[in-house]
Amino acid sequence: MALITYLTTIKFGFGEIAGIEADLAGLGVRKPLIIADKGVVAAGLIAGVQGQSATLQAAPVFDATPTNPTEEAVEAALALYRQHGCDGLVAIGGGSPIDLAKGVALLASHDGPLESYAAILGGIPKITASVVPVIAVPTTSGTGSEVGRAALITLKDGRKLGFISPHLIPRLAICDPELTLGLPAWLTAATGMDAVTHCIETYLSPRENPPAEAIALDGLKRAIAFIEHAVKDGSDREARKEMMMAALQGGMTFQKGLGAVHALSHPLGGLKEVSLHHGTLNAVLLPAVLRFNEPEAKTKYAEIRRTLGLAPETDLAAWIAGLVNRLGMPASLSQMGLPHAVIPAIAEAAVKDHSSATNPRAASAGDYAAMLEASF
Ligand SMILES: [Zn+2]
C-alpha cells in the first residue's frame, strides 16, 4: 500500500476501498451522489463499494453515464444532486463517470452554461476552488482521469470539448486494483492501450518537464511489461496492480499535454452516428501518429526503445501495431465502424483540439486526414 501526494492525494493498493467511509468524513462529505454507469452497476462494483460505507449505502446513484459523457448527462446528474441536497461526488468506474462527475462538480458550484468553461473558449480561469469535492474510484486501468485536471464532455451541439483546471482534479483518488479483477479482456486491452498512449504522448510533448517525462517512461515500461498478462489472465493480481499504477502514472503526466492521437480521438469520440471507445481508438491511431511524428522525435524514440529493451533499429509504429494485434484489438477505424465520409470534418476538428498544440510535430488538417486514412 502507498499514500502518495502528487497533484492530489492517492491511496493505492489492494483493499484501500475499505477506508472510504473515513475518507468521506475527512473531506466533510455527508451526502454524496454516486456517479456510475450501467456497466459498473451490472458488474456488482457499486454494490460492493456501497457495502464498505453506511454513507454510500444511503447515497443516490446516477448510473446513466454514456460511453462518452454528454452535457445532457451532466444536467441530469446535477438535477439528482440538487434534488437530494448533496455536498460531494463519488465517481466509480472508468474515465466516463469520473469525467461526468467533474462536470457535475463544476456546475454544482458555478453558473452555467457548461460551454463557458471550455478550455478552448477561454474558460480555464473561470473555474475556481469552489468546485465541490470529488472522490474518484477507478475500476479500469487506463484513463488517468482520477488524477487528471481535464474532463472531456460532448456538448449538445456535438462538439467534444475539454474542461481543464487544477480545481477539477479529484480531491482523493482511491486506486484499488481489486476493483479491476473482473474487467473483461477487451476492456482491459482498450483501457490499457489508453494508458500506453498517455505515457507516450505526454513523453513526446515538447513542453519542458523532466519529472513528468520520467514518470511517463516508468508508466510505459510497466504497461508494456504487464498489459498482455492482464488481458490473458484477468485474475493475475500483479498484472492488475502494475496496470493500475501505469494508468495512474499516465494521468500524473497529463500536465505536459497530449498529442495527435488524442486530438483525433476526442472528436471521433464525440460522433453521434457511431459510439467509439476512446482506448480502442487510441490503439488504432497510435501507429500512424508515431510514424508522422518520427522526424521530430528521433532522440525520444531512441529513449523509448531503450526503456522497453527494444533493439535500436525497431520500427516503433510497427511494433505498437503488432502489440495491438496480439491484444486482439481492431486493426483499423473501418473495422471499428467509422464511416469514411467523416474524415474531413474530424481532421478539421483535430486541428482545433487542445491536444494538438502539444504534438511534437505541427499537424495541419491535411496531415490529420492522412493519419486517419492510414488508420482506416
Ligand atoms: Zn486518453
Automatic annotation (TrEMBL):
Its cofactor is Fe cation. It catalyses: a primary alcohol + NAD(+) = an aldehyde + NADH + H(+); a secondary alcohol + NAD(+) = a ketone + NADH + H(+). Pfam families: ADH_Fe_C, Fe-ADH. Gene3D superfamilies: 3.40.50.1970, Dehydroquinate synthase-like - alpha domain. It comes from the Bacteria. Belongs to the iron-containing alcohol dehydrogenase family. This is Alcohol dehydrogenase 2. It comes from Bosea vaviloviae.
